[in-house]
Amino acid sequence: MITKEHYFHLLDGLRGIAALIVMWRHTGYFWGGWTIPQSYLAVDLFFVLSGVVVANAYEARLRAGLAPARFALLRLIRLYPLYLLGSLLGLIPVAAALLGLLPPSLATPLPLVLLAAALLLPLVSEPNLFPLNSPAWSLFFELGANLAYAAVLRYLDSALLAAIMLASALGLALALQAAPGQGLHGGYSPATMAVGLCRVGYGFFAGVALLRYFNSGRRAPLRRGARAWLCGALVLAGLLAVLLARPPAPLRPWFDLAAVTMVFPLLIYLAMGCRVSGRAAQACALLGAISYPLYVLHVPLGRLVNGALGQLLAPPPVMAVAGLVFAGVLLPLCWLLDQRVDAPLRRWLMRRNGIVVK
After folding, report:
1. Which pLDDT band, with edges at 50, 70 and 90, does 231 fall under?
2. In angstroms, what CA-CA distances link 312 with 301, 308, 318, 319?
3. Which of 9, 127, 215, 348 has the most CB atoms around it within 10 Å of its CB?
4. How far is Cα 232 from Cα 17, in angstroms, rounded to an integer?
5. What is the pLDDT of residue 301?
C-alpha cells in the first residue's frame, strides 16, 4: 500500500477538477449553453481514479480476510448518504410538477421511482436511468465494479485484469462503430447502459492495474519539489487539452477511445509519482473534499435555481450572474457538507456497524 504522502494529494486535485468540469457541463443553462466540449469524458477519469483509490485502500484488507459483504457495506457508507441527499433534492421539482407548478417530468409511477432511488437502482422506463439525480448512473456502475472486484479478487491476476480491460476496450470500440456520432457519451440512459458497463470495466480495472504496477518497484523514482510541480502542471495541461479539444466529427470516436484507454491512465500514472506538499497539497486536499458532494448535488440544486429563474423569465446576463453566485455558494457548501455532515455521519455509521474508525 502506498501512503497518501506519495500521491494521493495530486489525485485528489484531479478528482476535484473533474467534478468542477462536470458541474460546468450540467449547468450550461447558466452560460448560454456553452460547455467544455469533451467534458463527458471526465467520468472516465473518475473511474480510473476509483480503481487506484479502492485498490490501495482495500486490496490488502480483502486478501487478509475482509468479507466482500463487509466491503460492500463500507462502500455504501461512503457513497450513499450524499447520494440520498441529492435524490431527495431531486424530488422537489417532481413535487412541484404534481402541484401543477411545473410540467410533468416522469413517465414512471412515483412510488416506483422512489423505490429505485432508495435502492440505488436504475429505471429503464425513463430517459435517464436516475431521473431524480442523473449523475448517479456513474455511481451505480462504479459500485457494481467495486463489488465485482471484491468478488473475483482471489482470481484477479495480471492475465484476468488484461482480459477484462481488453474486453471492455473492444466493447467501447464496437459501440463507437455502431454510433460514431455519440462518441463515448453513454451510460446514463437505458439505450447506452452497455457503454457505461464498458467504460467502468476499462477505467476501474485500469486503475487497479496502475496501482499494482506502481507498487511493483518497476516505477520511476517519486518526483518532489520543482519536478513534482512540473509534472503536476503537465498532467493538468494534458487533462484540459483532452477535455477542451474539438476533434473533427470523423475522428471524434477514436479520439474518445484513445483518451479513455491510453491518455487518462497515463496522466494518472504520472500524477501518482508526484509528491506535493505545503499549499499545493492543501489545495489538492480541498478539491478532493468537495469533489463528491459537488458531483452528487450540483444537478438537483442547479435545476432548482434554473427552474426558479425560468419562472421569472430571467435574461441571459442575469442567468450568467446567477451561475456565478450558484458556484460561489455551492463550493463552500460542499466543503461544509463533507466536513461537518458527511464525514461525521460516516464515522457514526461505521461505529454502529462495528467497524473500527481510524
Report:
1. confident
2. 17, 7, 11, 11
3. 9
4. 13
5. 95
Residue 106 has pLDDT above 80, yes or no: yes
Q: Does residue 49 have a pLDDT over 90?
A: yes
Separation CA 19–CA 288 (nearest Å): 9
Residue 2 near residue 273, CB atoms below 8 Å = no
321 has pLDDT over 90: yes
Is residue 225 very low, low, confident or very high in pLDDT (cuts 50, 70, 90)?
confident
Contact assessment for residue 48 and residue 319, using Cβ atoms and an 8 Å cutoff: no
Contact assessment for residue 52 and residue 272, using Cβ atoms and an 8 Å cutoff: yes
Helix intervals (H) in the chain:
4-26, 42-63, 68-98, 110-118, 136-152, 158-178, 193-215, 225-244, 252-258, 264-272, 278-311, 316-336, 343-352
pLDDT at res. 1 = 47
The answer to whether the beta carbons of residues 205 and 145 sit under 8 Å apart is: yes
In the block, cell 483509490 appears at 53
Scored b (16 or more CB within 10 A) or e, 67-87 reads: ebebbeebbebbbbbbbebbb
Q: What is the C-alpha separation between 349 and 206, in angstroms, rounded?
A: 31
Q: Which of 207, 271, 214 is nearest to 238 (CA)?
A: 271
Q: In terms of Cα–Cα distance, which of 60, 21, 27 is closest to 43?
A: 21
Residue 300 near residue 86 (C-beta atoms within 8 A):
yes
Report the alpha-carbon distance of residue 125 to residue 17 in Å, rounded.
33
Euclidean distance between CA atoms 268 and 214, whole angstroms: 11
State the burial class of residue 205 (Cβ atoms within 10 Å of its Cβ: 0-12, 13-18, 19+).
buried
Amino acid symbol at 75:
R
Mean pLDDT, rounded, of the chain = 91
- Summarize pLDDT for 235-248 with one digit per residue, the tens: 999 999 999 999 99
Instruction: Give the 3-state secondary structure of residue 170.
Output: helix
The x, y and z cell numbers of residue 282, run together, are 492543501
Cα(142)–Cα(198) distance, rounded to whole angstroms?
A: 11
